[in-house]
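Worked example 3 (structure in, sequence out).
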């Protein structure tokens, strides 16, 4: 088995940062009214700026495939050219289409001039870590000498006002209050666009900082808990999901079947508790201790979870001091499958890391409560 190193990382964030006060200029007003929920949600999530692949007329400026390709382009240099790429592994929640696969579309944008291996990981926040794991295992097994792994999102086009206006009209017809259900509007002020990319190689680059991937673990609790975050379906009273394909087409808009929804009750009950349980299992499996870690990079959807996450980790014997946690949520927003790539790239290129230090990556996914974690060594 080969060792596997992240030898370079790159990020692409579309357009200029968007402040809290500018969000509705880009996403539009639902029913021509300013959102009453937005200030409350923003106060809790602590996000100050984010990035959208939109202009102020809600027109897209980039596709997800283009955002992903631009992040990948940042990996190419005199040491590694586009034609050297052997494998492209992409993870996203928000592909531009159902088919063809996202990685296939990104390969088409990149045009490296040759056939390469591709992999697409779909899902939610763990899609990025699954894409990383595919590349890691390929290089480790010697199937390829390198792999490019990317996590990306383009959520903004899912959140424009026109996607919500039809639901408002239906609520009026039902003589309900003309507001969008909180479980949908909650996500409208949480999600943003961007991509992060890693170059994985079987040898470290001399004269530069590298991150050796020691291991990557995954933990799913779908056998215990019903779905919490979902799209392309509707949740039934018994907790099951009914697929969009099982509804008449005239119900797709009426029930907003393709909207991304979240059960915030389940989120609060399980997201932190199960995350701590998962990380404890990985620490026991690999026989490591919290004091071995120098940096903890945890993807969180909201600053609301910061203190609770530390407390839950401490409750299972994983007490990481505050100074070891590294976040950039407030500046770049919640980029789903791309977030862990983007924060790792920032730390990797910050000048703070020293050889021999350990970096822990933690990613929760509320879809049906799945978690991933990885250990990196600076070398």
């Amino acid at each position: 088995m080969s060792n596997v190193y992240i030898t370079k990382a790159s990020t692409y964030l579309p357009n200029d940062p968007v402040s809290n006060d500018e969000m509705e200029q880009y996403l539009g007003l639902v029913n021509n009214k300013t959102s009453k929920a937005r200030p409350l949600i923003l106060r809790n999530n602590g996000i100050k700026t984010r990035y959208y692949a939109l202009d102020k007329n809600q027109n897209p400026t980039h596709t997800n495939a283009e955002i992903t390709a631009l992040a990948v382009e940042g990996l190419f240099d005199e040491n590694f050219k586009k034609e050297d790429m052997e494998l492209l592994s992409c993870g996203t929640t928000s592909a531009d289409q159902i088919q063809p696969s996202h990685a296939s579309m990104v390969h088409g944008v990149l045009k490296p001039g040759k056939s390469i291996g591709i992999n697409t990981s779909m899902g939610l926040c763990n899609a990025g870590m699954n894409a990383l794991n595919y590349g890691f295992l390929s290089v480790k097994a010697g199937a390829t000498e390198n792999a490019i792994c990317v996590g990306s999102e383009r959520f903004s086009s899912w959140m424009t006002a026109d996607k919500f206006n039809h639901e408002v009209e239906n609520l009026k017809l039902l003589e309900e209050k003309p507001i969008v259900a909180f479980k949908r509007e909650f996500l409208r002020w949480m999600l943003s666009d961007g991509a992060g990319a890693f170059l994985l190689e079987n040898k470290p680059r001399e004269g530069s900082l590298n991150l050796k991937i020691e291991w990557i673990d995954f933990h799913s609790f779908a056998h215990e808990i019903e779905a919490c975050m979902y799209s392309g379906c509707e949740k039934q009273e018994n907790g099951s999901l009914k697929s969009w394909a099982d509804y008449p087409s005239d119900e797709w808009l009426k029930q907003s079947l393709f909207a991304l929804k979240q059960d915030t009750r389940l989120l609060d009950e399980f997201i932190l508790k199960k995350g701590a349980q998962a990380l404890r299992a990985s620490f026991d499996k690999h026989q490591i201790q919290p004091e071995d870690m120098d940096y903890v990079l945890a993807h969180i959807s909201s600053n609301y979870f910061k203190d609770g996450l530390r407390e839950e980790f401490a409750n299972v014997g994983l007490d990481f001091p505050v100074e070891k946690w590294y976040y950039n949520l407030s500046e770049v927003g919640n980029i789903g499958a791309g977030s862990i790539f983007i924060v790792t790239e920032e730390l990797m290129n910050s000048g703070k890391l020293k050889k021999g230090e350990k970096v822990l990556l933690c990613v929760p996914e509320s879809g049906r409560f799945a978690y991933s974690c990885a250990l990196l060594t600076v070398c």
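Notes: The two ends are 19 Å apart (CA to CA). The chain has a mean pLDDT of 93.
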